[in-house]
Amino acid sequence: MILVDANILLRLGNQSDPEYVRAQRVIFNCRKADQVVIIPQSLYEFWAVATRSKDVNGLGMDSAHARPWITTFQRMFRLLSEPAEIVRTWADLVDRYAVSGFRAHDARYVAMMQLHGISQLLTYNIKHFDQFPITILDPRTLA
């Protein structure tokens, strides 16, 4: 299985993004080779950035434009559930790897990966995850 980071979803939802075509191609190729999944956090993060104004690094979508993307992503990818152990697993990771600040969100992706037996993460944010024992798939090197 391959977990998709929200930054991939954001590129799929924004045709003017310079990485839009590459993101599409990589998702297509990954889906041919393996099962590609998302987690609730991927959708929450997509929503937060998609509905944030462009002047603060968002996409500037209104709710009516962003909501169909949530449905589309749920059709495109299997949405994994959040096990009850997520907080314990996440807390263990942030302690073990001395995670602080915004990277705590990244540790939550890794916690979900551990709980679901996923070893690969498709993301543009390579440096956000390089301390964790996972395989990082960079779309820029896959396409």
Describe this structure in words.
The chain has 143 residues and is an alpha/beta fold. The protein has a single domain (2-142), classed as 3-Layer(aba) Sandwich (Rossmann fold), CATH 3.40.50. Helices cover 55% and strands 10% of the residues. It has a five-stranded parallel β-sheet with strand order 3-2-1-4-5. Helix 7 (126-129) links the parallel strand 4 (120-122) and strand 5. Helix 5 (86-96) packs across helix 6. The longest helix has 14 residues, at 20-33. The mean pLDDT is 94.
Give short descriptive properties of this protein.
143 residues, alpha/beta, Rossmann fold, five-stranded parallel beta sheet, 8 helices, 5 strands, 55% helix, globular
What topology does this entry show?
Layout: E1 2-4, H1 6-12, H2 20-33, E2 36-38, H3 40-50, H4 63-76, E3 78-79, H5 86-96, H6 103-116, E4 120-122, H7 126-129, E5 135-137, H8 139-142
Parallel strand pairs: 1-2, 1-4, 2-3, 4-5
Helix pairs in contact: 1-2, 1-3, 3-4, 5-6
Mean pLDDT: 94
Radius of gyration: 15 Å
Structural class assignment: alpha/beta
CATH superfamily: 5'-nuclease
The fold-level CATH name is: Rossmann fold
Q: How many alpha or pi helices?
A: 8
Based on the structure given, which CATH architecture is correct? 3-Layer(aba) Sandwich
Helix content: 55-70%
| Percent of sequence in beta strands | 5-15%
As for the number of domains, it is 1
Instruction: Give, in order, the helices and strands.
Output: EHHEHHEHHEHEH
Q: pLDDT under 50 segments (min length 5)?
A: none
- Main beta sheet strand tally, sense and closure: 5 strands, parallel
Quick one: CATH class? Alpha Beta
- Global morphology: globular
